[in-house]
Structures are given as C-alpha cells and as structure tokens.
C-alpha cells in the first residue's frame, strides 16, 4: 500500500521511500515546519520491535548519529520519526576501490565520523550490533552518519537463549556465537570496513595475516582479532589511532 502523502505524528508528511529494512520501510518526510526528517514504517506485527528501538534510541543526540525524534502509528503500523541522514550508503559512495588508495581522505573522514558516533553510543551504555555499509550514510565529501538502531541495545545484554545479531560478513566471532556483545563487537565491524578500504574487497580475518604496505593494516589486524579480549573497546582511541597513522587532522 502506498503511504506517500500521508501524515503521521505532529504534521509529519511522508514524501517518498528512501530505504528498506528487514522489518520496515523508510520514507523521506518533512515536518510541520518544512524541515526534512525520516520516518520508519514497520510491519503491523512489529509493534514490540519498534517499541524496543524507540526506548533505546530516545534521548540520543549526536551529529553523526541518526536518532529517533518521536513515534506514532499509520494505518495500524508503528512508525518512528528520526533525524535524516543525507547521502549514499557506504558501498555506493565508494565505488572505486580500494577506497583508501583512490579516495583516501574522504574514506578516512567516513571512518572518523563512524567512530565518533560509536564513541557516543558506547558512552550511553549502548552497542549498535549491526555495523555494515548499509547502515552508514555518506555524503560526497566523506561526511557520514550511522543509522538504523533497530538491533541496538545495552552493552553485554543477555537473552534467555543465544541470540545472533548483525550481518554475517561484518559479524564478530562472539556475535556469530550468540554471545552478549560489547563495544569491541562494533569495532570489529569497523575493522572489516577498514580492511575493505585497504584491500578493495572484504578480507578473511580467520586466514593468515595479509601483508599490505598501508600503515593502517596493523590496526585492521588488531580490530579483527578472533579473541574479543585482544581487541580495542574504545572507539575514540581507534579514531585517534587511524588519524595518527595517516598523518591527518580531521
């Protein structure tokens, strides 16, 4: 059913679809004052899922994070109204590869902004749990926002049964085992993106350590260690390390 043109919340009008998730459709929208925003429309049976995202996202406020502004309902479907992230998803923005060779400064800015968002999220006691290219929206200059907090939750949150979060190619070993996740699991996903930027394809962190002359290669290896206890858990430290190794001031 087409929802464009309909109004939710306090005068927020849906304009056009701009993205799709496993349980929702995201619309570009404008509020009553004409300011752009995003509206995530869930399937009717996903009320509890939408409520969980709302409870974990409300109150967040960071320029590198797309966060929830409010909630509502539309034709029996739960909706969340959030800040808008402009640009393209990461893989669409960086079509020339390897990104760290052909578009180095912009890609490093993207990683720095991603780590800014994660440092804030982790300081709030939350982990994202699904770091992947589709959840990072990038502008032409490399500026980026982290989006889609539908799998986010408290750090080291335990469930009655093992629960696997994330997307396989970027999933930490502990996430694939369904263990409680901390900040180091999010930073594993950052490590996979860093490896993609270095090599031009997703590396296999379970194989033998690859050699590459890029000074960021050792950091990639550190972020993707199989033992979570040997990985960094501080996003701000990783950001500083990336910029120092690259001799950049962003």
UniProtKB/TrEMBL annotation:
PROSITE patterns attached to this UniProt entry: PROTEIN_KINASE_ATP (PS00107), PROTEIN_KINASE_DOM (PS50011), PROTEIN_KINASE_ST (PS00108)
Top-level division of the source organism's lineage: Bacteria
GO molecular function terms listed in the Swiss-Prot or TrEMBL record: protein serine/threonine kinase activity
Binding site for ATP: 40
Protein kinase domain span: 12-250
InterPro entries on file: Kinase-like_dom_sf, Prot_kinase_dom, Protein_kinase_ATP_BS, Ser/Thr_kinase_AS
Keywords: ATP-binding, Kinase, Nucleotide-binding, Serine/threonine-protein kinase, Transferase
Protein name, UniProt field: Serine/threonine protein kinase
Organism: Deinococcus aerolatus
């Amino acid at each position: 059913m087409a929802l464009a043109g309909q109004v939710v919340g306090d005068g927020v009008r849906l304009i056009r679809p701009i993205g799709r998730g496993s349980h929702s459709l995201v619309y570009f929208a404008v509020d009553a004052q004409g300011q752009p925003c995003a509206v995530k429309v869930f399937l009717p049976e996903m009320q509890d899922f939408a409520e969980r995202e709302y409870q974990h996202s409300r109150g967040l406020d960071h320029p590198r994070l797309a966060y929830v502004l409010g909630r509502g309902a539309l034709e029996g479907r739960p909706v969340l109204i959030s800040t808008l992230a402009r640009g393209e998803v990461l893989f669409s923005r960086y079509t020339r590869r390897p990104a760290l060779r052909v578009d180095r400064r912009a890609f490093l800015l993207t990683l720095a902004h991603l780590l800014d968002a994660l440092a804030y999220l982790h300081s709030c006691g939350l982990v994202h749990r699904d770091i992947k290219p589709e959840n990072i929206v990038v502008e032409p200059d490399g500026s980026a926002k982290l989006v889609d907090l539908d799998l986010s939750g408290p750090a080291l949150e335990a469930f009655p049964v093992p629960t696997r979060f994330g997307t396989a190619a970027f999933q930490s070993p502990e996430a694939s085992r369904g263990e409680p996740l901390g900040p180091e699991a999010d930073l594993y996903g950052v490590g996979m993106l860093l490896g993609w930027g270095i090599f031009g394809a997703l590396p296999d962190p379970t194989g033998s350590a690859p050699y590459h002359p890029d000074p960021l290669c050792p950091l990639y290896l550190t972020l993707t260690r199989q033992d979570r206890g040997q990985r960094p858990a501080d996003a701000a430290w990783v950001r500083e390390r990336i910029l120092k190794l690259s001799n950049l001031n962003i």
